Structure formats: structure tokens, C-alpha cells
Amino acid sequence: MGLSPEPDHRSRDAAREGSEFVELLEVLWEHGREAVPTGPVSPSQLRVLYTLDREEGINLRMLAEALGSASPSVSRLCDRLQATGLVERAPSPVSRRELELRLTSHGKAYLVDLRMRREKVLMSTIDAMPAKARRSLLEGLRAFRNAASGQDSGGARPLRSTG
User: pTM (2 decimals)?
Assistant: First the structure.
């Protein structure tokens, strides 16, 4: 009762390949021929920036929940990001006791630049793939994104544009 069925071997194989893919991306972006350094931002801080990009105006408690971290730790991350000019805290229009967290224009520009540099590294690898494999990759990535965001595979939304 309530137990989900054992995933089939294809799901397990795909999960293993996906995990290796993520590790390879990290290596490509951090140490590859065309390394994409994240500059003064740690991986934990980068997660904060990504979350604020998706959930602009959330408060510290909601951010901590989204990250699965303790509020004091997230507060220190935000302190450092605020000191570098990437994040700002502003009074909430709903409650004077709460502060909203937002990316600054510098924070938004930082993410746009980071994403563009990372996409450039990906494009050089993807361009080397056969056309049929590129189409399959695109279809698979869209389905994965939709499944991860709770959408059914029939309601695909367009990928985020960088241009």
C-alpha cells in the first residue's frame, strides 16, 4: 500500500546516464577546454541565485525551504550575495515584518552571462553530435524538464531563450 513500483531497468539506466551527464557538465564547465568559472559565487550561492531568479520576491523562510537548508545558513549566503551586489533585500509590501529577496540588475546580468557561457560550451559538444541524436536529446530534455516541473509531456512549453 502506497509503495511505488520498482523502476524498470531503462529508468535506472537513464538515471545513471543522467547522473554521469551532470558530472560531465560540471567538469566541462569548471575544468574543460572552455571552462566557465562562476567567479566569486560558490555552488551554494549559485543555487540561491537560481532560486531567486525563479521565485523573485520570496522571503528568507521560503528560500530556506526551497533549498532544504536552515534559515541562518541561507541568511549568511544572502549576506555574502548582498555584499557582492548580486542580491537585495527589500521590505515586503504585504508584511512589514518580512523582507523580500530579489536579484539586483547585476545579479540578473551575472546569471545571463553565466548561462550564455555555459550554453556556448554545450553547443560546441552538441554540434558534434549527429542531427538525429540532437533531436532526440532535445525531445528527452524537454520531457525531463516537464516531468521535473510536474507538467505532462503533452504540454511542453518553449525552452528559455537567451537571445
Answer: 0.72
